[in-house]
């Protein structure tokens, strides 16, 4: 900054008086002489705007084709800002009537600025307010932060809006996921001027042994007309747990050091590498499931599906019997514990990660949560702590996957900054890097666009005192 002179708050009123005198004497009040006297913290900036609101409006209108018609600040209060870097202090300014509002951060930055509309906190009384750059405006209610947007309570009318008609560039299917090229996607969906400002990730495998299809012992078949299709077992709930666990097993460097912190029984063997591929005896390890599809003589008894022209095919067929060793441990636990391989929950996924971890001497204290609208940024917290996570999306959302769980190993942010007078506004778009169980390659998920019902599974990171 250009020769900034720090001033005590007790002197601030004097500075404001000097600035007002400058304005009243028709002296030019510009970026330099304000920043030369005005501290850049959000409280000082918010106080200046509130007490010099006419000048603030004038400077905005000089730089914008849209007119700010507000006359004064009706209400102001401190608010917590949560972005990919962590918690920050902010100040919320509600302009008079329905003439807009502003959210001020440090360094003369607006996190949100509107020249019309009522405050999102209108008629909301809470002891704590929060603005999340992923989830929007939140407030504390019954010990938890909830979204001010009541439409996210998932009414039928709201759910009818949660669909996309077509995919964007860089995306293979409509929805928030299936993104293979974030640069192409961002430009097509959000327009020009966005830049990739942050990329963070932890090591997680791609390739054959990461997809639901390759990790299904059985494939289910069906006809659409005369075309034969096959699908996985519906095993995303433990394939996602496996992908996360395999990431922990294959960790190196500081990532491995972080995972080793969870080890409480040092005598236990390490989790096996993804390269350790072994045969899996389906009939022995999961006989109750096996006998649904095959008899003891290995004859298929699953039944038949029929095409429109009369062609037939077995309904379920044994497909894969060789897997990474760690996956076989996960699968054996799932079959023993739950007696099935389809239709699991977030809480089941968390339990699988914890239980397999304990087999190898780790205490991950994994937690699964579900909610409407405010869970998304938790994965960013996990990655900032150098830990993977599992993302849960639902058919009651615009994700485009139906009910589905996917391992997450990173995130990207795209930012776009504009400015006027001494202020700047920076907007963000967030993307998770996932192993979605459908593709053998890494896939990105538009966290900013996602809305609706979902959840997340995370390891306990409080042991690192972050």
The main pleated sheet reads as: 14 strands, mixed
The number of E-state strands comes to 21
β-strand percent reads: 25-35%
Uncertain runs are 1-27
How many DSSP helices? 13
Report a brief summary of the structure.
By secondary structure, this protein is an alpha+beta fold. The protein has helices spanning 12-24, 31-35, 42-51, 53-63, 156-159, 182-190, 236-249, 253-260, 282-285, 287-290, 325-338, 346-359, 378-384, and strands at 73-83, 86-95, 101-104, 109-114, 129-132, 136-141, 144-147, 195-201, 218-224, 227-231, 277-279, 304-306, 312-314, 316-318, 322-324, 367-372, 389-397, 404-420, 423-435, 443-446, 452-458. Among the domains are: 40-148, no CATH class; 182-216 and 234-276 and 323-328 and 340-464, Cathepsin B, Chain A (Alpha-Beta Complex).
What layout of secondary structure does this protein have?
Blueprint: H1 12-24, H2 31-35, H3 42-51, H4 53-63, E1 73-83, E2 86-95, E3 101-104, E4 109-114, E5 129-132, E6 136-141, E7 144-147, H5 156-159, H6 182-190, E8 195-201, E9 218-224, E10 227-231, H7 236-249, H8 253-260, E11 277-279, H9 282-285, H10 287-290, E12 304-306, E13 312-314, E14 316-318, E15 322-324, H11 325-338, H12 346-359, E16 367-372, H13 378-384, E17 389-397, E18 404-420, E19 423-435, E20 443-446, E21 452-458
Parallel strand pairs: 1-5, 4-19
Antiparallel strand pairs: 1-2, 2-3, 3-4, 5-6, 6-7, 8-18, 9-10, 9-14, 11-15, 12-13, 16-21, 17-18, 17-21, 18-19, 19-20
Helix pairs in contact: 7-11, 7-12
